[in-house]
Write a structure and sequence with these properties.
It is a single chain. By secondary structure, the protein is an alpha/beta fold. It contains 15 helices and 21 strands. It has an eight-stranded parallel β-barrel, surrounded by six helices. A four-stranded mixed beta sheet has the order 6-11-10-9, with no helix packed on it. It has a three-stranded antiparallel beta sheet with strand order 18-19-20, with no helix packed on it. The longest helix is centred in the middle third of the chain and has 19 residues.
Amino acid sequence: MADRVILEAGKTFSEFSLLTNFTSKDCTLQKISLGSSLGGMKLRLPFMSAAMTSVTGYEMALSLGKEGGIGVLPARLSIKEQVEIIEKIKGYEMGFVEDPIAVRETATIDEVVRLVEKHGHSKVPIADRNNVFLGLFSFDKYLEANATPGESVTTIMIEPKDLPCSKNPNISLDEAKSELTEKNYLVVLDELGRLVKIAFRKDVENIAVGAAISTHKGWKNRAKSCIDAGADMIVVDTSDAFNEFTMKVIKEFKEMNDSIPICVGNIITYDGAKYLMENGADLVKIGMSSGSICTTQREKATGRAPMTALLNAARARTDFQKDTGKYVPLVIDGGVSAAGDMIIALTVADVVMMGGYFNHFFEAEGEKLDENMQVTNHEPDIKYVATWGEGSARARNLDRYGHVARKTFFAEGEEGTVENWGRLKPKLKQDIRKIKAALSNTGCMNLEEFRNKAVIELMSTYTQQIVGNTHNMQVKE
């Protein structure tokens, strides 16, 4: 008979509901922070893109890094490819937003909000027909204002006298960078007050990027090469990290470098998480069989429901912190596909790693396909994005899944397509607002408070249908 039989069913994120708590007047979306501290490094957003060859390459790592998350370059890439991408990201030069999208003073608030939702920009310049700068629409100010959508955008715009402006149209990048040390953005005008360009501080901040390694021969050279190139995090990426090989990698990595955090996974049990923590992992990654493309459960009957795995890892984190005083952040990898999943996951995890979610965007590495399934790079024609799991026949990531040779390989992932969602920034911004709104409902100003104060409740199957879905109506398309 099996050593232990667990009869309680595993749980996933959508089975839980977040309860509200008292919200103070200062707990507003624009004041809530989603920053995370991960083994000595800081992120503005708690998001990691998965180390999947269909997801994370230069474009995804750059775009997510600019927004404040971190992309993890797959170990299936050659060392040379990983290094070249890291160096390219670290050498990314801030540029001005030339000819920024602007609206006329006749625009309504609703029209400008639609632009924000379409392009993801939180600040939109307002100019007259001669391009004379009149002011700036700020989405944060709009959230604070008691204004109706049909009102003129000028009623809530920030006027030039209250904005950081430069009337030197020839301002250099170095001069702009100097001014941006104390400002979030800089509006550049000409001598007649006409809008020329805008610079943003986030474009001069460090863009974080991670690199995945395996536990197999050659990992040291890969890790060292990526660190030398400027990688901010090394991720030991194996489907099952609860083994002696992983422990050996952690210890040898710490001897080689103790300034870059090492994220280690994946595990799904209390014992697995405690084992990695005790052996020096700076972050622990949780998940098996919960990814949208993973077939490990079907092929090997191995895995665990993601929220159950995460809760067990959290118990290990608590016990380890009591014993050592050290807090080890948790990364949930798999099973998160929408803002609601992210919110429930972040009541326990410090950061969310997603593959399926990021695969939907133009910046993903998968081929872009039109409605006839033909490859295209013309954005208006893109309907689908190609996707494949690291355990699929296409990727054949033997190291990650412990296959010693191609002749013993069997697929543990699928290959297919996902719907194209367009560019990453607009959708990501919308989901960030949803997460901040959830924190506001619980009265929490940051993710640490959220993890310590949030109350979640398990729903019955019937309740999930009633609460989680529209019912008794025909939804308008």
